[in-house]
Design brief:
Layout lengths: L6 E16 L2 E8 L8 E4 L3 E8 L7 E4 L22 E7 L4 E7 L3 H4 L5 E7 L8 E10 L13 H10 L5 E4 L2 E2 L2 E6 L3 E7 L6 E4 L5 E6 L2 E9 L1 E4 L4 E6 L7 E6 L13 E11 L25 E10 L3 E6 L5 E2 L3 E2 L4 E7 L5 E5 L5 E5 L12 E4 L3 E7 L6 E7 L2 H5 L3 E7 L17
Parallel strand pairs: 1-4, 3-8, 9-13, 12-20, 21-25, 23-31, 24-31
Antiparallel strand pairs: 1-2, 4-6, 5-7, 7-8, 9-10, 10-11, 13-18, 14-17, 14-19, 15-16, 15-18, 19-20, 21-22, 25-29, 26-28, 26-30, 27-29, 30-31
The structure holds copper (II) ion (CU).
Length: 441
């Protein structure tokens, strides 16, 4: 039986506050409601979220609701909204039509605001969710701190260029705002773990010391069926839901990230993010079915491409390098029409990986370098390896306005690897906007 949809009100207040990431180790965080991450916003599919954001930061901000198919005016980008000035409040109001794991984060001066903790999770439940014994969110992050636990600012040319090229990665590894937290669970039980990569640039290659686990969902909700793996790449912006367990009594293991080579100056290492301790056995009510749903293909693999987006990295005297879309920075791309199927080829012509993020709409990957993907999924963020062409399909439904796509390595986004485009309602006249650029401090 379907419950009545309801309106759920949250009050979020942004501020600068002290946050203990480990005993005796305190940072000056920027975040929501004096906690890092911000509170988990919970709803059922079909509910309306009303989120009143009061900004008490020393600078303006906006909040982007990553993965939610909402009206353009609620997307939290400065293309559609005047940023919330210090002392001001803005009320976001939108329906959450799909179940799954989403997140919210600052979409203004992200290289500073997101790095300091301006993010939180959104969990949208549904009556069709598999039954698990527990449901947890794990927000992955890393911070780059000096010995006094202050956020570093690269002052010299070479470190600045490295941070711009690689994206900002730090040695302070966090899950839910804590360094190496202990996760206690019962033997014999199966839990749903929702991983959200909220870091600026870290590629998180999930590994549980070789223990197999089942991937059950990603950006746009459940997969068609569970996939059993021992490692799983989660790039910045992406979500992966897994069924973890059952494990044996007195087992203990690390939630770790294996090194992933995304062709950066600084080389990745195997690193521990949390420690799981399995306690006494408890009865399980979990049931993970063999099939969750059917995801209908939006288009055939050989569907005609109607837009090509080239991602590239080029030298720059001033910055060391620029990050480009179609050979330009911060581009204004052509509009798309409501109801017209989009088949885009994203061509990563650069020599490094980029997680491609589309705002407001889910896409399906039709092929990667000419090959169909191994499984169907609804995605809003998809990693594109070097010298790779990815063909995606998506449908602009009736939500006109200005949207964007960008690399979710925050420093690449800021350095130009992004495009604005309008979704237009053909029944109304279209007025193209003058070129505008995002401003970064
Ligand atoms: Cu990138």
């Amino acid at each position: 039986m379907k419950n009545q949809s309801k309106e759920i009100v949250y009050n979020l207040e942004t501020s600068v506050f002290n946050w203990e990431i480990a005993p005796g180790k305190t940072i000056e965080a920027w975040g929501f409601n004096n906690q890092l991450p911000g509170p988990i916003l919970q709803a059922n599919a079909g509910d309306t979220l009303v989120v009143r954001v009061t900004n008490n930061l020393p600078e303006a901000t906006t909040v982007h609701w990553h993965g939610i198919c909402l009206p353009a005016g609620m997307d939290g980008t400065d293309a559609m909204q005047k940023p919330i000035e210090p002392g001001e409040m803005f009320e976001y109001r939108f329906e959450v039509p799909q179940s799954g794991t989403f997140w919210y984060h600052s979409h203004t001066n992200e290289t500073v605001q997101m790095e300091r903790g301006m993010y939180g999770a959104i969990v949208v439940n549904s009556e069709f969710d598999p039954v698990t014994d527990n449901d947890r969110v794990f927000m992955i992050d890393d911070m780059k701190l000096d010995e006094q636990n202050n956020f570093t600012t690269p002052k010299w040319y070479v470190p600045r260029v490295v941070e711009r090229h690689d994206g900002r990665e730090g040695d302070t590894l966090l899950i839910n705002g804590k360094e190496n937290p202990v996760i206690n669970m019962h033997a014999g039980q199966t839990e749903r773990w929702r991983f959200i990569n909220s870091s600026s640039a870290r590629y998180f290659l999930l590994h549980m010391e070789g223990r197999p686990f089942r991937v059950i969902g990603t950006d746009g909700g459940l997969l068609e069926k569970p996939r059993t793996v021992t490692e799983l790449l989660i790039t910045p912006g992406e979500r992966m839901d897994i069924a973890a367990g059952p494990f044996n009594e007195d087992e203990s293991f690390a939630i770790e990230s294996l090194p992933y080579n995304r062709v950066t100056f600084l080389k990745a290492q195997r690193q521990t993010f949390a420690t799981v301790i399995v306690g006494a056995a408890k009865q399980s009510n979990a049931f993970i079915p063999g099939v969750f749903r059917t995801i209908k293909p939006l288009a055939a693999q050989d569907a005609e491409i109607n837009r090509t987006i080239k991602l590239s990295v080029g030298p720059s005297l001033k910055n060391g390098m620029n990050f480009k879309v179609n050979n330009d920075m911060h581009v204004n791309d052509q509009p798309v029409k409501v109801g017209e199927l989009q088949v885009w080829e994203i061509n990563n012509a650069s020599l490094m990986d980029h997680p491609f993020h589309l705002h407001g709409f889910f896409f399906q990957v039709l092929e990667v370098n000419g090959k169909a993907p191994e499984y169907m999924a609804w995605k809003d963020t998809f990693n594109i390896t070097p010298r790779t062409k990815v063909k995606i399909a998506w449908m602009p439904d009736n939500r006109p306005g200005t949207w964007m796509y960008h690399c979710h390595i925050i420093e690449h986004h800021a350095a130009g690897m992004m495009g604005h485009f309008d979704v237009i309602d053909d029944s109304k006249p279209y007025v193209s906007k003058p070129a505008h650029h995002m401003h970064h401090h």
